[in-house]
């Protein structure tokens, strides 16, 4: 239906004063502005009345009920068979629910008349989701089927950027769980926090919601519960329709199951049983009126009637632009046959302009986000690259240092780094074959570097403390090579050579005689220098030294 506009392009309502009804003074009192800081649960629709008869499960508590599954079951209407839930994290033998085992509950997002909604993190993929858990247990098979029907509706809806995305659903211990994408907040929560929306945002959200509704109406689906509490804002500031619990499908006999939505947003023709797409347009119009004018919508009475007779209180709508007022008037047309349709609204010039502008903004936002994430990725790649290059440079420098300082015959020409006077205590120490079987002692292995010297004649290794003389020793992985002969004597076994190489890593440290002897009380026989060397060797056997170790071996073989 075309929007009611005159030749000037203005709505009659914007220029002609609305005839004030005789009862206006009384009627005025039926509309009020929203009060700030109202508790969230204030807007909840009434709960269904409690049954006077206790449920069968109370009368026969131990009777087996086919609908009360002991195990979690996947709920899906795409496959005819009920499937058990699959998750690599779920352990059937544990008492915790599937929900607790597979999700980390972060906080409660909200509560409706059917369920409580939690913000959760999936332990499986680490992402954030919303999970709605039915508030009450199934009271019987028909109650279960009624609740499970919401899942079927989610599946019917399919994917659209302006509809809340369904992920999966399951039932466990007579409760239904529905996992959906997580949104920032509902439009109602947003308005409670930030007050009425500026008109630019109202247009943008109206455009998003009309697109979502267009997707539903194309599939002959009626939402039937459009209101700010069921409209969600995504993290990218797009608006989405959610909560498909009351959705109806035209032409498939589901109209007999129709339930009334919130009376504040309800189209008047629903009282006569006229379920059409126009009812959604009316509810959306009411929601927009509420958020744009900060108006408390009446649940009944005179104000409720007036709004459904095409009367929009000017004291609330005075601040709206004529375009928005004319769109609202078209959406809130009392006669559902004359009411604007989603198609006609989306093809109106003003909404086409908004839609173009909206697409441009969303696309540029998405582009900026993509560029930012690429930059972030590049930055982390560069950091890793820089760390790798620094490490390599460090390592190459170390190798170069060691090769420039390695004498041709370490036994005959002792390195200037080695202070032989410091090695007197260690001269008779040697590595035996059992060194790797010795226990590790609790000393600080990295604090005092030492150098092992190989005596060609005896085939023995001697430790020499170089703590004072060799600051360059620390960064160099092969600095101890000076004590390793290039042409080892035949008595020197390969094993002992490898061990000496092990000990030549910078992690090899000297343990003072005192500290070792202080351990004597526990094992007196261990106060022996060869064991000290062993201990050092064991400390030196760390993955980061492996590279230098093999480097040394290869240098030796050369
Ligand atoms: N995907 C979501 N992301 C963020 N918040 C959500 C999400 N789903 C629901 N909520 C919050 O939980 C509230 C209740 O959720 P929902 O409307 O789905 O429950 P309901 O019991 O079906 O409500 P109703 O009474 O409208 O039928 C919402 O108003 C909203 O505040
Ligand atoms: Mg809801
Ligand atoms: Mg609902």
TrEMBL record:
Stored InterPro entries: CC_SR_Kinase (IPR050339), Kinase-like_dom_sf (IPR011009), Prot_kinase_dom (IPR000719), Protein_kinase_ATP_BS (IPR017441), Ser/Thr_kinase_AS (IPR008271)
Cellular compartments annotated: Golgi apparatus membrane
Predominant localisation class: Golgi
Residues in Protein kinase domain copies: 103-351
Chain intervals with Low complexity compositional bias: 404-424
TM annotation in the entry: none
Keywords: ATP-binding, Cell cycle, Golgi apparatus, Kinase, Magnesium, Membrane, Metal-binding, Nucleotide-binding, Phosphoprotein, Serine/threonine-protein kinase, Transferase
Hydrolase among keywords: no
UniProt binding sites for ATP: 132
GO BP terms, alphabetized: meiotic cell cycle; negative regulation of G2/MI transition of meiotic cell cycle
Record carries keyword Phosphoprotein: yes
Xref: SUPFAM superfamilies: Protein kinase-like (PK-like)
Catalysed transformations (reactions): L-seryl-[protein] + ATP = O-phospho-L-seryl-[protein] + ADP + H(+); L-threonyl-[protein] + ATP = O-phospho-L-threonyl-[protein] + ADP + H(+)
Region Disordered, residue ranges: 404-426
Enzyme Commission identifier(s): 2.7.11.1
Any one Gene Ontology cellular component term annotated for this protein: Golgi membrane
UniProt topology in membrane: Peripheral membrane protein
GO molecular function, one term: protein serine/threonine kinase activity
Task performed by this protein: Acts as a negative regulator of entry into mitosis (G2 to M transition) by phosphorylation of the CDK1 kinase specifically when CDK1 is complexed to cyclins. Mediates phosphorylation of CDK1 predominantly on 'Thr-14'. Also involved in Golgi fragmentation. May be involved in phosphorylation of CDK1 on 'Tyr-15' to a lesser degree, however tyrosine kinase activity is unclear and may be indirect.
UniProt record similarity statement: Belongs to the protein kinase superfamily. Ser/Thr protein kinase family. GCN2 subfamily.
Protein name: Membrane-associated tyrosine- and threonine-specific cdc2-inhibitory kinase
Organism expressing this protein natively: Geotrypetes seraphini
Lineage: Eukaryota, Metazoa, Chordata, Craniata, Vertebrata
